Amino acid sequence: MSAPLCPDCRIEMEAQKYYGVVVDVCPACAGVWLDEGELRALMQVDPLILLSIDDRALPDVQYNPEEVVQRRCPRCAVLLHPYRYLYESPVELDGCAQCHGIWIDNGELRKVFEELHARESVDDEEKRRLAVAQYALESQQRVERANWLASLAVQPAAQAGAAVCGLWIGTDGC
Ligand SMILES: [Zn+2]
Ligand SMILES: [Zn+2]
To answer: Were 109 and a residue from 48, 54, 121, 141 both cysteine, which residue would form a disulfide, CB within 3.0 to 4.6 Å?
Structure first.
């Protein structure tokens, strides 16, 4: 099987292996072709790989990005269609509707990484907010339990002590 051709430069791309994932990199424009699922596979191993691919791939000095061509899928030869990564992000990639591969211009992998990173920070913030809410809820329940226990204090001391102890097992290590 011959190497897939760069959608921009129409020259053969070089296969590069990252943790078992083979990506195709154009030696001229330093664009990267990822087959379906490869972006996800790389991110699952380590999102930082996106940066190392991007750093390693450098465009040839002769490369002229002004030459606009209609990009075709290196696998299926159908026209690629531009779309926004994660639907609304500012990162624009080109995808194949047939094989679901994606074409990533030089420098765009870094943007994909940064976009992911920004989203992760939002997720962390959300998790912190939920943890605080959970803590507040538990404190509230603790107060209610304490009030209820106080209402049991009218019972004979020994029995009440046993009941109280049973109720608190697991929370206070009684
Ligand atoms: Zn190229
Ligand atoms: Zn395709």
So the answer is: 54
Gap from CA of 88 to ligand 2 centroid (Å): 23
Nearest alpha carbon to residue 86 among 24, 137, 40, 28 = 40
- Of all ligands present, the nearest one to the C-alpha of 77 is 2
Instruction: Kindly list the protein residues that place their beta carbon closer than 5 angstroms to ligand 1, a single-atom ion.
Output: 6, 8-9, 26, 28-29
Domain spans, the chain:
14-120, 127-168
Q: Using an 8 Å Cβ cutoff, are 50 and 112 in contact?
A: yes
pTM: 0.69
For every residue of 88-155, DSSP letters joined together read TSS-EEEE-TTT--EEE-TTHHHHHHHHHHHHHHHHHHHHHHHHHHHHHHHHHHHHHHHHHHHHHTTS
